[in-house]
Design a protein that fits this description.
Strand order of the largest sheet: 9-5-3-2-1-10-11
Distance between the termini: 99 Å
Number of strands: 11
Low-confidence stretches: 3-30, 32-41
CATH architecture of one domain: Alpha-Beta Complex
Shape: globular
Number of helices: 12
Largest sheet: 7 strands, mixed
Order of helices and strands: HHHEHEHEEHEEEEHHHHHEHEE
Strand content: 5-15%
Length: 365
């Protein structure tokens, strides 16, 4: 009768660290017959070898080498990519990062590596010291080259517009250029006057720079008095009525203030135009006065052709590569603004440089 062989079981506690034996497929041996195993009375305790622990076999995955989550990127050249980013509830930081990546691609596409690019894209708020502070902070990273400002704004206060223009003029080591893809009205027109070149296209417009107070032109009060004087001249009997009304309603210091504000706008424009080469017969002063006094409607459209007549072709540049670049940015920002308003119920503005400028405002509507 054959003697039964005994195999002593080995517990996992006999090892300090669990180690899975590694066997290459070519080294696998047939399962031994238990009847051929010699009796083993004791299994000696072993430390796992360094070769086993440090094995780089493909079947063992080191936790350090586990693939990390790759941050999702969005194709913002496609409206579907923008929609997906917003539906993914991207926060302001991620939206800024994606905008920066998109703008960088556009800058490379147009070969504008030597341009320091600034943005003043705000169709919702009045130009104020907030915008001038943002531009001042953004321009602090300027190193060299032309400064190119993409300007899309309906205007606001004269003083910050003047300061932004002067800051760009004094900072650049070369030229200060302004691109108007659509609208740079009122105080934004004043800002543009400080540029060496203003790049425009068929849909671009600047406008008069006569100051507005309470939504009405400051010059309107003086114009109203002139009109009343004409009526009284034509109908002398109406003089008593008008004099009584005006004496009870009109404050003469207000009339004087409105006129001085308008003269101030003329002075700012004259300083920004400076010694630029202008059309024959024009000076900085005559152009400034036209922008304040000539156009009777503050919303008057000074389009590409009108701007060339007024400022000359040395300043107004038509359908350039810079304009095409600005137009692509306008289309991108406009689409992004519309979708953010729908999905997030917020208003999109971008004031700053490529790396920082996003501001989402609570929609008041």
């Amino acid at each position: 009768m054959a003697t039964k062989k005994r195999v002593k079981e080995v517990s996992i506690e006999d090892y300090q660290e669990p180690v899975q034996p590694i066997i290459e497929e070519s080294e696998v041996t047939p399962e031994p017959n238990i009847d051929t195993i010699e009796e083993v009375s004791e299994v000696p305790e072993q430390e796992p070898s360094a070769d086993t622990v440090n094995s780089t076999d493909d079947n063992i995955v080191d936790p350090v080498d586990e693939p990390k989550d790759v941050e999702k990127e969005y194709n913002l050249f496609d409206s579907n990519g923008i929609i997906q980013m917003l539906l993914d509830k991207a926060d302001d930081n991620l939206i800024q990062k994606e905008i920066t990546r998109h703008l960088t691609i556009l800058k490379e596409k147009f070969h504008f590596k030597d341009y320091f690019i600034l943005f003043l894209f705000d169709e919702f708020t009045s130009l104020s010291s907030y915008e001038s502070d943002k531009i001042y902070q953004s321009i602090s990273t300027y190193n060299n080259g032309d400064i190119l400002l993409i300007l899309n704004n309906l205007g606001g206060h004269i003083e910050p517009a003047y300061l932004i223009s002067q800051t760009c003029k004094k900072t650049t080591s070369k030229k200060f250029l302004v691109c108007v893809p659509r609208k740079a009205k009122s105080a934004s027109t004043l800002l543009a006057l400080g540029a060496d070149e203003i790049h425009m296209g068929m849909m671009s417009e600047i406008g008069p720079i006569d100051p507005q107070i309470g939504g009405l032109p400051a010059l309107g009060l003086g114009n109203s008095l002139e009109y009343i004087a004409k009526i009284v001249t034509k109908f002398p009997s109406s003089s008593t009525m008008f004099s009584q009304y005006l004496s009870s309603k009109l404050e003469l210091n207000v009339l004087g203030y409105f006129e001085r504000v308008s003269e101030s706008a003329t002075q700012y424009a004259e300083r920004l135009i400076g010694n630029k080469e202008l059309p024959q017969g024009e000076t900085a002063k005559t152009i400034a006065e036209k922008l304040v006094y000539l156009y009777k409607d503050h919303s008057f459209v000074i389009d590409l052709e009108e701007a060339k007549k007024l400022l000359g072709e040395k300043i107004i540049k038509e359908d350039t590569n810079e304009y095409r670049f600005a137009n692509e940015i306008y289309l991108f920002f406009d689409m992004l603004s519309r979708l953010i308003r729908i999905v997030y119920k917020k208003r999109f503005t971008y004031v700053g440089n490529i790396n920082k400028g996003l501001n989402l405002l609570k929609d008041s509507k």
